[in-house]
Amino acid sequence: MSVYRLDVIEAEGDTPARVMVGHSEYGLASLTAGQFRSRQQEVRPDPLPEESAHAKVVGTKTTSIRRWFAREARWVIPPPGTDCPPNG
After folding, report:
1. Residue % of the chain over a pLDDT of 70
2. Helix, coil or strand: residue 59
3. Is the model more confident about 22 or about 85?
4. Which of 15, 53, 79, 80 is 20 to 30 A from 87 (CA-CA)?
5. Structure pTM?
6. Distance of CA 34 to the CA centre of its chain
7. Which of 66, 21, 61 is nearest to 42 (CA)?
8. How far apart are CA 80 and CA 60, in angstroms?
9. Statement: residue 6 has pLDDT above 70
10. How far apart are CA 79 and CA 24, in angstroms?
11. Number of separate helices (H) and strands (E) present in the chain
12. What is the Cα–Cα distance from 47 to 64, expressed in whole angstroms?
């Protein structure tokens, strides 16, 4: 599972919107590293040439864990055409 680290984005003087370039048909949701760790997941840096904030979430993702992620995630940038307000 790929994620983007907000601490890296902010340290580089940018905003989360940068990861949406070329993905305007999607939304962006957030979970904290602590939330991932609470479900026995590990966030590992995995920088890409085009995105230094890229990371991977490593661990077994059972159906119940995936559902928990979906329930706990908060919109940063809602998908276009939805009535989902950002809820940070």
Report:
1. 94
2. coil
3. 22
4. 53
5. 0.85
6. 13
7. 61
8. 31
9. yes
10. 8
11. 3, 5
12. 28
